Amino acid sequence: MLHCFQCGKTFDDASLLWRCPCGGVLDWTVPESFKRSSIRTEETGMWRYAASLPLDSPDSRVSMGEGGTPLIPGDWNGLSVFWKLDFLCPTGSYKDRGMACLVNRLRELGVRELIEDSSGNAGSSMAAYCALAGIGCKVYVPGYTSEGKCVQILSYSGELVRIPGTREDTSRAAEKAASETYYASHNWSPYFAHGVKTFAFEVWEQLGFQLPDAVLLPAGQGSLVLGWAHAFEELRASGEIDRLPRIYALQPENCAPLA
Ligand SMILES: [Zn+2]
Question: What distance in angstroms lies between residue 194's CA and the mean position of ligand 1's atoms?
Answer without folding.
Answer: 19
